[in-house]
């Protein structure tokens, strides 16, 4: 067991996380957890022992700091990643796609922020159903559930496809975009297969519905689907096994997972850490969890915002680069 942060949490191995989740799940003991993208480790902490400086919000529970007045004027500018570096990574991804190693890969890069906002400002003010703040480390304000469980029914809401809402005829263009349609269908199929490993009766009640999200730079439209299935009796005592069986999240890795993750490690020139991992809360009976996207992280150079998008053989480097930049936003006005 290794120290994780100065916030009083520990980074456990994968097997230690699974054992703790299984034991506490079976006991009906509420806990908070977070798992990095590589799913090789994670932290799990009882709900009554969450350290000072760690805050979270999910539909089941909210423990967020109070918002304080923002600086005047607010400064928020992003320095995009180097386009040539992005193109090298994009070319690496395309070589894997052409070889058939993957047919959808989520490529991510960091953008350095010039801002007078703090991590606590981002977390406290963001309008988002899933939030996690480890003060001094990172703030995540994710719109995307990983899996939820209510009454033994597991649901996932894969999110793929975005467009600025002010684009003429935006909703129709998003729904009819061939690249976006294929990308979304691939992820839904992947999630169906994932849930079928742990659930029975897996089906898709809603496919590719459109939602609007307000951001500091205007509204965007995004497409999501709902995939659900029934967990077996006693799932709480196997909660760790169930969750880790589903990792990493398909919407932020790609398909097929094993070979796609290998390609991601080759293409991306850094470790993702908790970005695109998952975090969540078990209240003793039900579960909420989220994909850790919309992620601001402290670094030696200041705050960075991590973003990305799905790449297929139909993708264009300039268009994907612009999409990556468009995703550097905060869901609150200033």
UniProtKB/TrEMBL annotation:
Gene Ontology molecular function, alphabetical: 4-amino-4-deoxychorismate synthase activity
Sequence ranges assigned to domain Chorismate-utilising enzyme C-terminal in this UniProt record: 83-327
InterPro entries: ADC_synthase (IPR005801), Anth_synth_I-like (IPR019999), Chorismate_C (IPR015890)
GO terms under biological process: L-tryptophan biosynthetic process
Superkingdom of the source species: Bacteria
UniProt name for this protein: Adc synthase
